[in-house]
Structure formats: structure tokens, C-alpha cells
Design goal:
Strand content: 15-25%
Number of strands: 21
Number of helices: 18
Helix content: 25-40%
Radius of gyration: 24 Å
Length: 480
Amino acid sequence: MLSMRGIGKSFLGVRVLSGVDLDVTAGEVHAVVGENGAGKSTLMKIICGVHAPDEGSIEIDGRPVSFGHPLDAQRSGIAIIYQEFNLLPERTVAENVFLGREPVRRGLVDRAAMEEATARLLDELGEDSFGPRDPVKRLSVAQQQVVEIVKALSIDARLIVMDEPSAALAEHEVELLYRLIGRLRERGVAVVYISHRLREVFDLADRVTVLKDGSRVTTVPIGEVSSDELIRLMVGRDLGTYFPPRSAGAGEVRLSLRAAGNHKLRDIDLELRAGEIVGIAGLQGSGRSELAKAIFGAEPFTAGEMTPSRPRSVREGVAMGIGLVTEDRKAEGLALRQSVRDNALLVARAVGGAKGRNGVRDLLERVRLSPPRQEQEVRYLSGGNQQKVVLAKWMTMAPRVLLFDEPTRGVDVGAKAAIHDLMRELANDGMAIMMISSELPELIGMSDRIVVLRDGRIAGTLPAGPTEEAIMRLAAGEVA
């Protein structure tokens, strides 16, 4: 359906894409992977008419095309679903689906026709949990994603670009995404799937194209490449060096919980030791994030003991030397319209610490921020670099205990490796680290031991290097 040949693009003299080829066939799920800065977003925007290529050619069904505007791409049957949805929360599902294209009857918007067409598309996708009249603000993130797909189908899209479609989804919602993509494939719709999550790439894709530094490395059927090989193609090194070596041994107890609990947690017994990374596993709703927030003082414990003391607020938690890298860095970890420097100093200023320009520069270099420009607004950084700024923010206070909630969510494999290396460096320097992650390979590769939660309680503790099956048995309540 789509053929791109020799695509090149530069911005302000900086070469972003060079000689990139891409073919997509009807009914195919074609994954495009690569580190941040590899050129994925620019290539997708060229496909969708946001940017025009400086060189190269594009064909649809064998016919040359030239897109000067996203509407031109839409007329050729191409739609894109961005990571951050373009929906109006106060309007209904049908109003969002036909926004700007409302059917008209006798000079008025034909709501009945609009709702009927939306209902038909929802039915074709097998979605019956909401209807065309429901306000979008009442829908879950996964349901809003369905609305975006229905919008694309309503313009007769034959190729849909999905940019990190699972980044904001809970674990159980990813299953809905898989089902929807299966329905699109059955309809003959082509899907270009951009994701940092390699498991999804292997689950869904028919073929995968690897980009690196603005060039295409290879395009290969998914059955002919392993995850190790794919990582090597993306980052230029083997998976064997992806996770740093584990700690040689744990030191003194930095934090201890005994029968601790609150309205979401019960009877938590846990020790965090200097030099150790403790992984926290569990299904959605098991209490993982709630445990981190309770230790930090954001949702304090109301029962049991915590040594050295039980913080009653975030301020008390920080004063005790506890830091929390939150799950949602944009909403809870950063001031997006402020500079890198101001964000790096947020904690230091709150607790009365002082860090000069040189001190911040040293921290940014340690977290491997690339490039470490202090005055740039954080909102313009990649996800991986934003996460590194969050780390720098907490390192200004040299915490005794640092809690990570999904530390590498939405970052590319190269940035993941850098964050993993830094976490191990901090542990080796004597910090106690607790890491929550939904990615079992990450938990297994990084943790010195893994604590599994279920229904707000500890279901069991596993030594370093357990199998995924062992973790899931405890998480799901199955007996081995």
C-alpha cells in the first residue's frame, strides 16, 4: 500500500533522516523501532503530511503522491494516533469522531446519523463498554484510544500510524489494544506501530524496521530476529551488557517496615538495605505504587511501624532522606515549562539546599543528560532525558532511600540502559533502592531480590534471577 524511497529531511541544517526506505502492505502490522533521536517521529510525520521530505519519493498503491498538509494524507487513507490523544473531553464520543466533519441535514448537524455511524464502527471493533453519546471525559485511557481508532476508521483510513499506543495503558488495558489491532488487521488496515516495548513488537508485528541516527538499519520479518539481535541493531551493543552486574552484597538496614498498613496496604514487613535494589512486582491494583507513596509520606501508613520513623507528609519523608521518582514524570515529577536547571533544583530549594550552576552541570553530566543544556525547557526533551532530569532533582539531596516507580516507562532502550547503570551506581555508593516495574525482564535483570504484592499484602519474596513464571504465580495467587 505505502512505498517510501530515499526519504531525507533536515531541520536548520541538521540532518534528521537520510535515504530511508519503508514499505507497508495492506493488513500488515509494521513496527518501527529505534532509540530516541533515531528519526522515527520525523518519518511518521512525513507519512502523515505534517512535514514534506527534502528528498525521496512516496507512493500509495503504486501512484506517486505529495502531501502538503495532513488533510492530503487523510484523503489518501492515512491517519495517525499520537501518544497524547487529540480529544475534547466535554464532548461526546460521536462528536469527537466527526469533529469538523459533522453530517448536516437541512442546515443542522445530523446527530442521529453521526451517532449511528459511530455505533456501527464501535460494533465492528467489538467495543460495547461505551456508546456514541457518552462524554469522552468519563472514558478510561484505553476507551479513549478506541475513540481515536474509530476516528481513523470514520475517514476510511487504510493505514493507521500508532505512536507508543500502550505507553499510558494499564496492564489489563493492553489486551484491549491487542484485540483492536487484530480487528484492524482482519479489515485489511495496515498499522505502523512505534513502541519501545519489544515484547509488544514481537507479539504484534509482521515485520520490523530499525532506524538508527536517521538511517534505516534493516527491515526484517519478526520471526527472523531475536530480541537480543534487535537491541544490538538499535543501540550497537549486545543484550548481555544491557543490565549492569548485581550488587556483591547488602549493607546496613536503611528502612524497615513491620506490620505496616493503611487503607490500601496491610501487614507489610520489608527491609531496604544500603547497596541493594529491591524489586516490587504485582498486578495492577496490587498496591505497588501505594507502597512507594506510603513510605514517602504521600499516602502515609496509619498502622504498624516504620524505622527510623513513619513520615506523616511528603515534607517529612524528604527530611528523612527519602526520594520518590514517580510513575508519571510529566504530571508529578517535573515543571514542564521550566528549565532543566530549575527542575534539577526543585528538591534542593524545597529543603534549603544550595547547588550552583557548576553543581547542576556536574549532576546532569552524571545522569548522562544529552546534551546537558541547563536553560532548555524540560517539555522539549525526550522521555529518557526528562527522566534523567528527575533523577538529577533527587540526587541534589543525596537521599538515603530512593524509590523508583516505573523508572524506564516510555523511554528508549539506550536511555533505559543509562538509567539502569545509574541506579546500580547509586546502590554501589550505598543508597537503598526500591524499584517498581511492570516489565518483568527489567525486574529480573535489575533486582537483588523481588517482593511480590497481591491485594495490598506481600505474597512472597524471591531471590535474584527468578523466572517470570515464578513471579506471576505469586502475583496471581497460584500455587506452584
